[in-house]
Specification:
The complex is a heterodimer of chains A (about 120) and B (about 120). Chain A is an all-beta fold and about 120 residues long. Chain A is built from no helices and twelve strands. Chain A is about 0% helix and about 50% strand. In chain A, strands 2, 5, 6, 10, 11 and 12 form a six-stranded mixed beta sheet that branches. A four-stranded antiparallel beta sheet of chain A has the order 3-9-8-7, with no helix packed on it. A two-stranded antiparallel sheet of chain A has the order 1-4. The radius of gyration of chain B is 14 Å and the shape is globular. Chain B has no helices and eleven strands. With about 120 residues, chain B is mostly beta strands. In chain B, the strands form two sheets. In chain B, strands 2, 4, 5, 6, 9, 10 and 11 form a seven-stranded mixed beta sheet that branches. In chain B, a hairpin with a 3-residue loop joins strand 4 and strand 5. The chains are: A mainly beta (about 120), B mainly beta (about 120). Chains A and B meet through strand 5, strand 10 and strand 11 of A and strand 4, strand 5, strand 9 and strand 10 of B.
Chain lengths: ~120, ~120
């Protein structure tokens, strides 16, 4: 069975600090997809990134960066120079894929990390 | 408007009542999903559908019923609501097949906050 663990329930930082959100996953699949979603106080889910299991390149998008390490089954998310607008709940999620590399897309979510950025 | 919508956005009901949460998407996506969000559990899959008239159970299906007579609609029914079903419910959809930037990305509705008294 698939499992995603976000051990950090809540993180509190002061604006401009860097913060890393941890995500550890378990799966028996050799092909899978990893995601990060942001849920701001307004409640909607905002897609941030998708990474497939064959692509271990780290990715940077503005102040956001992601570190994918298959060896440790981790997909950590770092926000550089955090801002108050980054305050949200962040979810890491895992999706299965069949042998053809496609996926029904069922997502297994972690418990979420509540990030609060203070001015 | 294009996108995925859920109705109602807020609902209060009583134990034992039947409640239906609606989900509508305008993209003609093949796959649709229902998740519930509870503190400490993240989002958990209730039911999903690969196409019209094809549905299957997710992680927490007990107490819920779904149907999908049309591609664009995926209603979720609580046949006899219980307090444990108080939650925020999210509907999502995604296109079938591979390729493209949206491959495997799920698009989520705004959520329905359900309270069962």
């Amino acid at each position: 069975a698939q499992k995603v663990t976000q051990a950090q329930t809540e993180i509190s930082v002061v604006e401009k600090e860097d913060v890393t959100l941890d995500c550890v996953y378990e799966t028996r699949d050799t092909t899978y997809y990893l995601f990060w979603y942001k849920q701001p106080p307004s409640g909607e889910l905002v897609f941030l990134i998708r990474r497939n299991s064959f692509d271990e390149q780290n990715e940077i998008s503005g102040r956001y960066s992601w570190n994918f390490q298959k060896s440790t089954s981790s997909f950590n998310f770092t926000i550089t120079a955090s801002q108050v607008v980054d305050s949200a709940v962040y979810f890491c999620a895992l999706s299965e894929a069949n042998a053809g590399g496609t996926s029904y897309g069922k997502l297994t979510f972690g418990q979420g990390t509540i990030l609060t950025v203070h001015p | 408007d294009a996108g995925i919508t859920q109705s109602p956005r807020y609902k209060i009901t009583e134990t034992g009542r039947q409640v239906t949460l609606m989900c509508h998407q305008t993209w003609s996506h093949s796959y649709m999903f229902w998740y519930r969000q509870d503190l400490g559990h993240g989002l958990r899959l209730i039911y999903y559908s690969a196409a019209a008239d094809i549905t299957d159970k997710g992680e927490v299906p007990d107490g819920y019923v779904v149907s999908r007579s049309k591609t664009e609609n995926f209603p979720l029914t609580l046949e006899s609501a219980t307090r444990s079903q108080t939650s925020v419910y999210f509907c999502a959809s995604r296109p079938a097949g591979g390729g493209g930037s949206s491959y495997n990305e799920q698009f989520f509705g705004p959520g329905t906050r359900l309270t069962v008294l």
